[in-house]
Amino acid sequence: MTAQNSATTPNTIAVAPSTGTSTGTSGASSASGTASAASVSTTPDSAAVSGSAAVSDSAAARPAASSGTLLAALGVVSFSLTFPSTVWGLESFGPWSLVAVRSVLAALIAGAFLLAGRVPLPERRHWAGLAVVGGGVVVGFPLLTTLALQTSTTSHAAVVVGLLPLTTATLAAIRTGRRPSRTFWIAAVSGAVVVLAFTLQQSGGALSTGDLYLFGALLVCAAGYTEGGRLARLMPGWQVIGWALVFCLPLMAAGAAVALAYEPVRFTAHGVVGLVWVAAGSTFFGLYVWYRGMAVIGIPRASQLQLAQPLLTLFWSVTVLGEDLAPAAPLAAVGVLVCIAVTQRAKS
Description:
Layout: E1 2-4, E2 12-14, H1 25-80, H2 82-89, H3 95-116, H4 127-148, H5 154-161, H6 164-176, H7 182-202, H8 209-231, H9 237-262, H10 269-297, H11 299-306, H12 309-319, H13 328-345
Antiparallel strand pairs: 1-2
């Protein structure tokens, strides 16, 4: 009599009949029982293999998540140094020159990476979106914040620009037609009220010119982030900022030539370091590692890391620039962070 062993490659094996038992129905039952036992015995083995594979996948995912978190954190640190570096850059360059030259240098770096990777030109249907990204992130935000930092401290600017995630979320909701929950809107409005109260308190009851520049920077940068987020679903995020920089290169090169002719340049160590950092560090490296990290750990976890950016900028303003920190600044920054955290947890 034969039976099939289900635990291995099908083979014919002999099954010895029990002593004193005749062949027939009882033999068939014995063979069936043997086969069933073999079949049952394989179930735990299959579960063990499946469980082992799941553990292996989980173990492999942990290093990737750690590297993604590290990359995103490097991006946040890079962004937090933008304002102090801009203040240093203003020691050597005028505001228009600094913005134009930093954009030119960043575009050359981005162009080199795009050429090295043999990245094809974006489709024409994406050009309008890239123009919005360039106008908001490459030109508008750097220019307006640089103009603001001529009269505002970095700590003051950090608190105001800390509202950027809320502004971006609001414009994204309008752009995509989504309807966030009531909790989201309450937290967003509360964050705006905190920042407005802070600016009025610091400016003696009226908005200063620097505050107007900062609020304008919030709007244009949020528009650039929103459009960039949409394009990042269609192409790698670093290519979005890379092509936006390259597309702006002719305009910024012409702007640099004009600005350098009218604004005197006084090279200092701080000025050169500040220029290099805002061009290579904040504008390209920061966005590159940020998008790479965000692709690994996801937008929600990356956004949680970005909550630390205003507080990091406050730290740099004191330790690097030696600014006197107003008592209201860290309180307002924490208030904004709480509002941002609530909006991220609120269900749409």
